[in-house]
Structures are given as C-alpha cells and as structure tokens.
C-alpha cells in the first residue's frame, strides 16, 4: 500500500472542474484519504517546489501556484504514486496521452491541471507539507 499527494491546480478550481478531477480519481480505484482547499503564499509555494529552485520556470510556477486556491489530496492504493502519475499524463498537456487528466483539462505546461508526487521520498515530504497524521483517514 502506498500514498501519494495530488494537487488540483488553481485554474481547475477557477474553471469549476474540481469535481471532474475527483471523479477520475474515484473511478480509478484510488482511495482519497485526505482532502482540503488551501491558498499557498508565494513563500509556501517556493518551499513546496524547492526541488525546482533555480530552474527557469521556478518564479512563474510559484507565482501561479500561489495565485488562487488549490485542492490538495492524499491518495492511497497499491502503487498509488505511479497510478496517479499515469492518470495525470505527461507534464506537458500537448504531449499527454488521450484520456489523461492533463490531456483533457490542461492548458499548457505550467497550467497543467494537476500535480503528483514523483517518488516515495517526495510523497512523504509533500504529504507532510499539507497534512498532519490526524488528517489522514485510513
Ligand atoms: P508539476 O507536476 O506541478 O511539477 C512542477 C511543475 O512545474 C510542473 O508540474 C509544471 O506545472 C511546471 N513547469 C513549468 N514549466 C515547466 C517545464 N518547462 N518543465 C517542467 N515543468 C514545468
């Protein structure tokens, strides 16, 4: 059993498509064990995306991710990390496979609808960033 962090990004909240993303998660069989809506400060977005510090898109990314509320959720299941990444599709919606969330709802490489942890280590950091143990419902 594995857990991963998912984020529904600001443009999806703005466009009132949150429910469609949650449906995709539920239909996939991944279990939502925690979920909330939060608005990050620029500083918090920089901490969350610290592994990208120094990259050319870091400032734009963290400005965007702190520009409106996001929905964060913890997904649980066997191989949850790779399953959620498969559901999301490639980072760039233009390259994402048919039927993936980013293909269907993403706008461009930055406004790509959703985020997911890329390893068990990043999942542990990212889940702990947003949730305490008390907020995770087994
Ligand atoms: P995400 O999965 O949230 O992880 C890092 C984010 O940086 C990525 O999705 C994109 O939204 C954003 N980003 C913007 N430009 C790029 C780029 N050229 N390559 C990768 N990620 C990018």
What would you note in describing this structure?
The longest helix has 11 residues, at 18-28. The chain has helices spanning 10-14, 18-28, 42-48, 58-65, 80-88, 101-105, 120-130; strands at 2-8, 31-38, 70-77, 114-116. It is globular, with a radius of gyration of 14 Å. α3 (42-48) packs across α4 (58-65). The protein is an alpha+beta fold. The mean pLDDT is 98. It has seven helices and four strands; from the N terminus they run βααβααβααβα. Strands 2-3-1-4 form a four-stranded antiparallel sheet. The protein has a single domain, classed as 2-Layer Sandwich (Alpha-Beta Plaits), CATH 3.30.70.141. Bound molecules: adenosine-3',5'-cyclic-monophosphate. The site of adenosine-3',5'-cyclic-monophosphate has 8 residues, from loops.
Summarize this entry quickly.
This protein has 138 residues and is α+β, with helices and mostly antiparallel strands. The chain has helices at 10-14, 18-28, 42-48, 58-65, 80-88, 101-105, 120-130; strands at residues 2-8, 31-38, 70-77, 114-116.
């Amino acid at each position: 059993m594995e857990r991963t962090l998912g984020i529904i990004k600001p443009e999806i909240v703005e466009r009132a498509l949150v429910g469609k993303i949650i449906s995709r998660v539920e239909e996939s069989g991944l279990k939502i064990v925690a979920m909330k809506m939060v608005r990050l400060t620029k500083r918090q977005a920089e901490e969350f995306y610290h592994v990208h510090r120094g990259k050319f898109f870091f400032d734009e990314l963290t400005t965007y991710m702190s520009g409106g509320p996001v929905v964060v959720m913890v997904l649980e299941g066997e191989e949850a990390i790779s399953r959620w990444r498969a559901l999301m599709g490639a980072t760039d919606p233009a390259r994402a496979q048919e039927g993936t969330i980013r293909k269907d709802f993403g706008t461009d490489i930055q406004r790509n609808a959703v985020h997911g942890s890329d390893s068990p280590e990043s999942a542990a950091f990212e889940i702990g960033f947003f949730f305490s143990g008390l907020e995770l419902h087994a």
